[in-house]
């Protein structure tokens, strides 16, 4: 089919994320991708400042990941995980236990980030049942968060300014503390209020779920690392299961391999996804401690009540093993630090606020972004951007060169200047 025919069929039949079916936003046809660039029909290769929604940390067509995929496909592409196992899944679990914060030694392989958070919440609920507290069914979290689009996940996303406020009447009602502060000097006052809120609701709370160090789709907002210690202390004081959602922050994005390491904190449950396979295939994982696993196993069911058809998919697991090995065997920290240095140029943009953390840069405007206009301007500068609300931001592949990062900053500045 010709490009125009493909786009016409796309517009008529395909439903893209957060897009009207009756009046869909424009889409562009990608015909290839390699390194830090995607090739768009009629435009050519452009730097992907989004890393395919933050997942393609190694860039595209990486020879090691390509070979891992090919080699595994020659053995088997999929087999059910019920009653069966295979080497890629075992090896992936071993790698995840090795690189994750201390104590996380049980691994549930899910098929998407949202599902991994759903599983984490189930773990917390079943744990409380297992230790004799079945009345604990609510979750404590903070405003400004985002944890996915499935139902329980939506209930712990920001209840007002988030994407899911339209569902508020049908979602479970959770407990929301104030957004964690960015400055360490503001942590003590915030912590006092957060502790009081937790104490007031402790008897009903099963767990505490947060994105550590950086709130992603809720606004690309970093916060003080010491807040993570407050979360740990509150969870311990009230018997809550502490869940860190590192789907966006894991595998080096914020400057440490996991954001939890910035404060030396280990959660009871850890969710990972996105960069887990280097952007090749959908896969996520929920890790927990042996204590949580034992408590959960003492619940009335005796088993974790979840089992996706494609959990532990061998292709995805094989690529994930290769991706983790690329990171741990390479200089991911140096790459992230280099990108961070380049992103400092965003501070020259005239905007309401500029935020840079690790390989994340965000320019917040004082008005909503004209997404179509900003996207077109960025493409004119050789960059693919996907703004949302009032944010122009980037989470680029670690494979980006210094010139790529400079181009991203120039494109963001141009889009901001154009309003």
TrEMBL record:
Pathway listed: Cofactor biosynthesis; biotin biosynthesis; 7,8-diaminononanoate from 8-amino-7-oxononanoate (SAM route): step 1/1
Listed cofactors: pyridoxal 5'-phosphate
Xref: InterPro entries: Aminotrans_3, Aminotrans_3_PPA_site, BioA, PyrdxlP-dep_Trfase, PyrdxlP-dep_Trfase_major, PyrdxlP-dep_Trfase_small
Participates in the substrate recognition with KAPA and in a stacking interaction with the adenine ring of SAM (site feature) positions: 18
Keywords, sorted A to Z: Aminotransferase, Biotin biosynthesis, Cytoplasm, Pyridoxal phosphate, S-adenosyl-L-methionine, Transferase
Name of this protein: Adenosylmethionine-8-amino-7-oxononanoate aminotransferase
Quaternary structure (record): Homodimer.
Enzyme class: transferase
CDD domains (UniProt xref): OAT_like
Annotated pyridoxal 5'-phosphate binding sites: 113-114, 245, 308-309
Similarity remark: Belongs to the class-III pyridoxal-phosphate-dependent aminotransferase family. BioA subfamily.
Function as written in the Swiss-Prot or TrEMBL entry: Catalyzes the transfer of the alpha-amino group from S-adenosyl-L-methionine (SAM) to 7-keto-8-aminopelargonic acid (KAPA) to form 7,8-diaminopelargonic acid (DAPA). It is the only aminotransferase known to utilize SAM as an amino donor.
Subcellular location, record wording: Cytoplasm
Modified residues (N6-(pyridoxal phosphate)lysine): 274
Reaction(s) the record says it catalyses: (8S)-8-amino-7-oxononanoate + S-adenosyl-L-methionine = S-adenosyl-4-methylsulfanyl-2-oxobutanoate + (7R,8S)-7,8-diammoniononanoate
A GO molecular-function annotation: adenosylmethionine-8-amino-7-oxononanoate transaminase activity
Organism: Saccharopolyspora griseoalba
EC number(s) per entry: 2.6.1.62
Gene expressing this chain: bioA
Positions that bind substrate: 53, 146, 274, 307, 386
Entries under NCBIfam families matching the protein: bioA, PRK05964.1
Pfam families cross-referenced by the UniProt entry: Aminotran_3
Superkingdom to which the source organism belongs: Bacteria
């Amino acid at each position: 089919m010709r490009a125009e025919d493909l786009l016409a069929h796309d517009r008529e039949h395909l439903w893209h994320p957060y897009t009207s079916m009756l009046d869909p936003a424009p889409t562009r046809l990608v015909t290839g991708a390699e390194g830090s660039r995607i090739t768009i029909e009629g435009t050519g290769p452009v730097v992907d400042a989004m890393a395919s929604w933050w997942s393609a940390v190694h860039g595209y067509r990486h020879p090691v990941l390509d070979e891992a995929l090919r080699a595994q496909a020659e053995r088997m592409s999929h087999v059910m995980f019920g009653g069966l196992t295979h080497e890629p899944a075992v090896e992936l679990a071993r790698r995840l236990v090795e690189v994750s914060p201390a104590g996380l030694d049980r691994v549930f392989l899910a098929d998407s980030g949202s599902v991994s958070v759903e599983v984490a919440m189930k773990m917390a609920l079943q744990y409380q049942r297992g230790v004799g507290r079945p009345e604990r069914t609510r979750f404590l979290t903070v405003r400004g968060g985002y944890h996915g689009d499935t139902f329980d996940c939506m209930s712990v996303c920001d209840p007002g300014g988030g994407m899911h406020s339209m569902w508020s009447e049908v979602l479970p009602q959770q407990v929301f503390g104030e957004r964690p502060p960015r400055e360490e000097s503001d942590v003590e006052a915030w912590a006092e209020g957060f502790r009081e809120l937790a104490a007031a609701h402790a008897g009903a709370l099963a767990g505490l779920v947060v994105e550590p160090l950086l709130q992603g789709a809720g606004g690309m907002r970093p916060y003080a690392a010491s807040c993570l210690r407050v979360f740990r202390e509150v969870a311990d004081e009230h018997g809550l299961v502490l869940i860190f959602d590192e789907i966006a922050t894991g595998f080096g994005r914020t400057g440490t391999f996991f954001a939890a390491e910035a404060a030396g904190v280990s959660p009871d449950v850890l969710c990972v996804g996105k960069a887990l396979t280097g952007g090749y295939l959908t896969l996520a994982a929920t890790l927990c401690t042996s204590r949580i696993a034992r408590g959960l196993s003492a619940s009335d069911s005796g088993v974790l009540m979840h089992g996706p058809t494609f959990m532990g998919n061998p292709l995805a697991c094989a690529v994930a093993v290769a991706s983790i090995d690329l990171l741990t065997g390479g200089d991911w920290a140096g790459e992230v630090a280099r990108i961070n240095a380049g992103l400092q140029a965003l501070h020259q943009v005239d905007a309401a606020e500029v935020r840079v953390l690790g390989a994340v840069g965000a320019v917040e405007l004082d008005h909503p972004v004209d997404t179509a206009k900003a996207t077109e301007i960025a493409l004119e500068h050789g960059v693919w951007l996907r703004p949302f609300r009032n944010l122009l931001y980037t989470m680029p592949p670690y494979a980006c060169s210094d010139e790529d990062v400079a181009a991203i900053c120039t494109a963001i500045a141009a889009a901001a200047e154009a309003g």
